[in-house]
Amino acid sequence: MYHKQMIPEHLRWLFWDTTLSSLDPQQWADYCITRVLELGDQPAVKWMRATFSESQIVEVLRNQRRLSRRSANFWSLVYGLPAVEVAALAHAE
Questions:
Q1: Where are the domains of the chain?
Q2: pTM confidence score
Q3: Which pLDDT does position 5 carry in this prediction?
Q4: Is the torsion defined by CA of 41, 26, 84, 78 positive or negative?
């Protein structure tokens, strides 16, 4: 029997606005990654890196404009992306 990997209980605080029992991280990868990049602590980042590939995380950085400039700048440095390749930095005014 196939079991979906769901959001761990200790990360409930990150997804306060969703029903955790039905949130499939792979189906909602952009949402989950964005939430962790913006608000996550060290355990959340560890879970994100174990759950999603580096290419999935980088794609969110390249395409997700909803990140704050502060978070986008930090994660662009972590992943070695120039600011022009990070949506939240390239499109900020």
A1: 24-82
A2: 0.88
A3: 64
A4: positive
Residue with structure tokens 């959340």? 44
What is the full DSSP assignment across 35-87? HHHHH--HHHHHHHHHHS-HHHHHHHHHH-TTS-HHHHHHHHHHTT--GGGSH
- Stated length of the chain: 93
Query: Which amino acid, one-letter code, is at 54?
Result: E
CB-CB contact of 85 with 78 (8 Å)? no
Per-residue pLDDT of the chain (93 residues; tens, 9 = 90+): 344 568 888 998 999 898 888 889 999 999 999 999 999 999 999 999 999 999 999 999 999 999 999 999 999 999 999 999 999 998 654
Question: Which residue's entry shows tokens 């890196």?
Answer: 49
18-40 pLDDT, tens digit per residue, is: 888 888 999 999 999 999 999 99
